[in-house]
Design brief:
Structural class: alpha+beta
Strand order of the largest sheet: 1-2-3-4
Order of helices and strands: HHEEEE
Largest sheet: 4 strands, antiparallel
Strand content: 25-35%
Number of domains: 1
Shape: globular
Oligomer: single chain
Radius of gyration: 13 Å
């Protein structure tokens, strides 16, 4: 399942009363994998928090590893491609 579909599912279920948790292991593992390439940390060392998804499939989350917290985002673009990024979170 692509992250776009995952974020859309989270957003839709949140709007409908929650049929899936943003804290489900499947979603958390996917966010850890996406975050790894942007943080330089291996997925197993990343903690994911503050998962928020919009109805358009975009979303944000925090990835913490190595004593640093990153703000990560997913954005759906035309043609259903996805763009991801993480940057050090403002403290």
């Amino acid at each position: 399942m692509t992250l776009l579909r995952t974020m859309l599912l989270i957003a839709a279920c949140t709007a409908l009363g929650g049929c899936i948790s943003a804290n489900s292991p499947r979603i958390i593992n996917r966010l850890k994998t996406v975050s790894a390439g942007h943080t330089g940390c291996v997925p197993e060392s990343i903690d994911i928090t503050n998962v928020k998804a919009a109805h358009d499939g975009s979303g944000t989350w925090n990835a913490t590893c190595g004593g640093k917290t990153y703000l990560c985002s997913a954005v759906a673009t035309v043609g259903h491609s996805e763009s991801y990024s993480c940057a050090p979170a403002v403290q």
